[in-house]
Amino acid sequence: MPGFSEQRKQMVDRYRRSGYITSDEMADAVLRVRREEFMEPSYVEYAYVDRPFPIPGDGAQTISAPYMYPIFYEPLKLRGGESVLEIGAGSGYGAALARELVGLTGVVVSIEINATTYRFAKENLERTGYGDVFLVQGDGALGYEDKAPYDAICVTAACPEIPEPLLRQLKAPGKLLAPVGDSYSPFGQDLVLLEKDEGGRTRRRSLMKVSYVPLTGEYGWRRRT
After folding, report:
1. Which residues contact 137 (CB under 8 A, 6 or more apart)?
2. What pLDDT score was predicted for residue 193?
3. Is domain 4-224 classified as CATH 3.30.420.40?
4. Nearest CA to 51 among 62, 36, 40?
5. Cβ atoms of 155 and 88 closer than 8 Å
6. Which of 64, 91, 110, 183 is the catalytic position?
7. Measured between alpha carbons, how far is 17 from 112 in angstroms, rounded to an integer?
């Protein structure tokens, strides 16, 4: 089997051909971030397989299939110097990719509600040289006012609706991406891209169907049941 570096290159080539990766910036970020460093040890050999794998938490947390990260980040069109808020740190892999995309002058804030998963992400980010990601343990749907507003916000859990605090913390102009819909539906959720213009007006469109675990916390599914 090829080494991890070669597997990473093959994955980027595969995702370019399939249309998941459309920009050089995204391709470069995926090539630089070593996904194997963000996996549970028992799954490391499968780091470049196109599927999610479990990570420490309450049993629901995963590191998403690798193609989901460009699916999220390409529509946000992250650029150097921008500020990004990620809801659901997971393994820390997504935050590391965002850090590569916004560069040394950008800011990445990532919030994780599960304490065990938070520690896993923190250890991974610090070990791999992304310790400057601002990692917070808490209810991500409330956002993080201290670093707001944000050029881009991505939510990596299924929301009943886009949480109001995140809308308030999004810059004008700015972009927000979130799975919206019933997390228990066999048909999945709509991956919604919300764009706020300079006047604060918003428009939204569904990009595709996805399947994500439910958002928890004040604006999540479990709070409402």
Report:
1. 111, 112, 113, 115, 118
2. 98
3. no
4. 62
5. yes
6. 64
7. 33
Structure tokens at 167: 């809308």
* Joined tokens for residue 220: 């999540």
Phi, psi at residue 178, to the nearest 5°? -155, 145
- Helix (H) and strand (E) counts in the chain: 7, 9
Do 177 and 72 form a contact (C-beta atoms < 8 A)? yes
pLDDT along the chain (225 residues), means of 10: 92 97 98 98 96 90 95 96 97 98 97 97 98 97 97 96 97 97 84 97 96 90 53
Q: Cβ(92)–Cβ(192) under 8 Å?
A: no
Give the global pTM.
0.94
Distance CA 68, CA 29 (A): 14
Instruction: Provide the token pair at 180.
Output: 């919206």
CB 171 within 8 A of CB 196: yes
Give domain limits for the chain: 4-224
What distance in Å separates the CA atoms of residue 14 and residue 187, rounded to the nearest whole number?
26
Residues 6+ apart with CB under 8 A from 3: none
Task: Check if 64 is active-site.
Answer: yes
CA distance 110 to 90: 9
d(CA 125, CA 17): 29
